[in-house]
Predict the 3D structure of the following.
Amino acid sequence: MNSFTIVFLIALTFSFSVQFWLAKRHADHVAKHRSAVPDAFKNTVSLEAHQKAADYTLAKSRLGNIDSIISAALLLILTIGGGITWAFEFWASLITSPLLAGLTAVATVFLIMTLVEIPTSLYQTFVIEEKYGFNKSTPQQFIKDQLLQLVLIAAIGMPLLALILWVMDSIGSLWWLWAWAILIGFSLLMSWLYPTVIAPLFNKFTPMEEGSLKERIQGLLARCGFSSQGIFIMDGSKRSGHGNAYFTGLGNNKRIVFFDTLINSLDDEELEAILAHELGHFKCKHTIKMLIANAAMTMVSFAVLGWLIDQQWFYAGLGVQQPSHAAALLLFTLVSSSFTFFIQPIIAYFQRKFEFEADNFASSNAKAEKLISALVKLFEENASTLTPDPLYSAFHYSHPPAAIRIANLETQIRPA
Ligand SMILES: [Zn+2]
């Protein structure tokens, strides 16, 4: 341990306290506004639905707090508690190749972190989601999903990690630039493969049937000059009652996906308006801007890691006695969020700005009033709170709070 230990502990305590304080503000705000539906929603949302949303938000918030405490405790155990040192020493005593030993040690730490997360995830799915009527998953489905995720991470993540560790060991001082390029190339490849290769492992995708809805959607796509590899309906209802619509894929491998739960709760014009919003993200180049911003942030991270990797105090400060490239990569991944959490509200600010732009695009290519009614239904059906704490939502929300978002859309309703 050294003075960097103190710096790390201060950063962790500070980020943890800020998150906790924001979560408490949010819970207090939601509880305070539980007794009455906000004026803007008086005619569209029932008191019963409003109170269900408040209770659901509070339940998730309590679990979130417990989860944060567990994560912080685990982080301390792994770093200054000696957990990472133990994993590296254990595998180094069994495996002679330093690369393989490092790889196995990193995998062991991630496996431990995944296992520790399981009780929270079980409680979330089978207690909270169950209580509020959202859970459609069975324990068998849950186990199957967890195992499939582990297999995928092992099959895809381990070779990638091995390649990056090899680059770190073999390429010299500019390794971080190579590692960055490999990671970005890999994530682009994954985005391209996701809709046709990975997503179908978890869900069934059925092409949308011919009919008035499909014609309406094709009309919208033609108006906006957008081509895709098809419109699909996903059996989201096998796990959860929450509904969504999204685009996936890159370049010519793009798909439009509607959850079956969404199709069942919205009418054709509302679905068109939701899709117009999603198209807005493409047309306003949000996807590409996010990709570039992400690539730039990743590059900065790798450059910082490229410097830290040679600093003895970095390892010692975080409880690791034997410096290695694998240990540096692992430590950096685990502790960096304690130092960079203040970037979160900046990213969230841009995400909300993009949401307004996509809403405006939707208003000029579909009906703003239909997007409003769709959003109200979605807020109600997902039991999303209509009364978030302003500071909490500014920090965390990737979408504008309901009242602000709908007020913007109301200014864009065109006379019939
Ligand atoms: Zn959006």
Observations:
- The chain has a mean pLDDT of 93.
- The CA atoms of residues 145 and 202 lie 7 Å apart.
- The longest strand covers residues 255-259.
- Strands lie at 205-207, 231-234, 245-248, 255-259.
